[in-house]
Amino acid sequence: MARSRAAYEYTEAEDKSMRLGFLLIAAGLLSLLGLGCCWLRPALQERGAGGSANCTVLAVRQLGERFACTFSCGAACRGTARYPCLQVLVRTSRSSAPALLHEDERQLRTNPKCSYIPPCARDDQENSENVTYKQKYWKEKVGSQPFTCYFNQHLRPDDVMLKRTHDESVLLHCFLWPVVTFLVGVLIVVLTICARSLAVRAEAIKKKKHL
Question: Rounded mean pLDDT of 135-160?
Answer without folding.
Answer: 82
